[in-house]
Specification:
The structure holds two protein chains of two kinds. Chain A is 0% helix and 51% strand. Chain A has no helices and twelve strands. In chain A, the strands form three sheets. In chain A, strands 2, 5, 6, 10, 11 and 12 form a six-stranded mixed beta sheet that branches. A four-stranded antiparallel beta sheet of chain A has the order 3-9-8-7, with no helix packed on it. In chain A, strands 1-4 form a two-stranded antiparallel ribbon. By secondary structure, chain B is mainly β. In chain B, strands 2, 4, 5, 6, 9, 10 and 11 form a seven-stranded mixed beta sheet that branches. A four-stranded antiparallel beta sheet of chain B has the order 1-3-8-7, with no helix packed on it. Chain B starts with a strand and ends with a strand. Classes of the chains: A mainly beta, B mainly beta. Chains A and B meet through strand 5 and strand 6 of A and strand 5, strand 9 and strand 10 of B.
Chain lengths: 114, 115
């Protein structure tokens, strides 16, 4: 069955520290991969996406993610976290055959310490 | 473009009442999705439409829930009768096949409280 796993439910980092949020997927076909961010009381906003080509993709707000096919992973990174990055982050995966449907992970809540 | 529009933003109702949530997708998008988000269950896909036709409603919890898409610019999610366990944030999202490969654009959500 298709699935997306975000192993970390909650992560706390200090402001200015680096960040890595993990995402692993299980999918038979070539996946399309996404990271979304949800600030409190808001809808989900797209951070970045991967379809093909360069496996390191850049997104908004200084985020990047790397697709590693051998590890079925698409981890999100940021070199220096800002207090405003505190939010919930969702990894999602889809394929051409899914007709628009995305499978979302359970989310990782990020807290930022001053 | 105004993005995905949802109304109302907040809804408080009493158990047993009918609730109707509304969504206007982004113009030109041919997919529309309804999600429910709770602390316990996270983000759940309830139903999605392609070209106004329901494709997969396997996530709809029970017969009390129904969704319609009478035209390309409007969809409703109805709960009748509502129960306290339906309290959640309901999101609508839309996407366009062939453009950005399934990227979904989310509305701001409707926070539903059933007393």
């Amino acid at each position: 069955a298709q699935s997306v796993t975000q192993p970390d439910i909650h992560i706390t980092v200090s402001e200015g520290a680096s960040l890595e949020l993990r995402c692993n997927y299980s999918y038979g076909a070539t996946p399309y991969l996404f990271w979304y961010v949800q600030s409190p009381g808001q809808g989900l906003q797209l951070l970045l996406k991967y379809f093909s080509g360069d496996t390191l993709v850049q997104g908004i707000k200084g985020f990047e993610a790397e697709f590693k096919r051998s590890q079925s992973s698409f981890n999100l990174r940021k070199p220096s976290v800002h207090w405003s990055d505190a939010a919930e982050y969702f990894c999602a995966v889809g394929t051409y055959n899914q007709g628009g449907k995305l499978i979302f992970g359970q989310g990782t809540e990020l807290s930022v310490k001053p | 473009d105004a993005g995905v529009i949802q109304s109302p933003r907040h809804e408080v109702t009493e158990m047993g009442q009918e609730v109707t949530l509304r969504c206007k997708p982004i113009s030109g998008h041919d997919y529309l999705f309804w999600y429910r988000q709770t602390m316990m269950r996270g983000l759940e896909l309830l139903i999605y439409f392609n070209n106004n036709v329901p494709i997969d409603d396997s996530g709809m919890p029970e017969d009390r829930f129904s969704a319609k898409m009478p035209n390309a610019s409007f969809s409703t999610l109805k709960i009748q009768p509502s129960e306290p366990r339906d309290s959640a944030v309901y999101f609508c999202a839309s996407s366009q096949r062939g453009a950005s490969y399934n990227e979904q654009f989310f509305g701001p959500g409707t926070r539903l409280t059933v007393l």
